[in-house]
Amino acid sequence: MSTSPWYTAAPGPGQTRLLAAWPGADSLVNPELVGMLLDVAKEQVLAFAPALEPAAQVRTLLEDLGVEEASITAVITLLDFEDNPSDPPTRYAYAQLRQAQTLWAAGEADENGNIGTEGFSYVPRPLDKTIRGIIRPKSGTVDVF
């Protein structure tokens, strides 16, 4: 299986990838907080995303728990699931990154919910319409009852 597309603050290649996508993430308080933001954002993305196939759900859970690939394959075989170990769509990882940034910004808002100075403001909205659209894009077809 390829490297997970999810962003991580853990030291190593994942952290390098994160800092390339979110410059300055390493200067936001501490790496543990950035890691928590990424974990929460991932959970929110997965909660809003359409359900994965059972084998993919088991694989994701066991990978998150740090179970070795051989054991994951054995569990999926025992459960008699058809295993298709494809990574989640790239848009999920992008939504995770943007949601983590939004969560960080929400924590930086003033008592009125605004971020910014000199008359400029931004009101962060967790899992906003744009991020939901990244996770579940609307098709170009019209639903007819």
Question: What would you say this structure looks like, in words?
Answer:
- This protein is mostly helical and 145 residues long.
- The chain has a domain at 50-86.
- It is built from 6 helices and no strands.
- It has helices spanning 13-21, 31-48, 54-64, 69-78, 90-107, 129-135.
- Helix 2 (31-48) packs across helix 5, helix 3 runs antiparallel to helix 4 (69-78) and helix 5 runs antiparallel to helix 6.
- It is globular and about 55 Å long.
- The mean pLDDT is 77.
User: SSE order, as H and E?
Assistant: HHHHHH
- The N- to C-terminal Cα distance equals 41 Å
Shape: globular
Largest sheet geometry: none
- C-alpha Rg, in Å? 18 Å
Share of helix among residues? 40-55%
Strand content: under 5%
Arithmetic mean pLDDT: 77
Class by helix and strand content? mainly alpha
What is the count of DSSP helices, taking H or I runs of 4+ residues? 6
Entry summary:
This protein is mostly helical and 145 residues long.
Considering the chains and any ligands shown, give keywords for the structure.
single chain; 145 residues; mainly alpha; 6 helices; 50% helix; globular
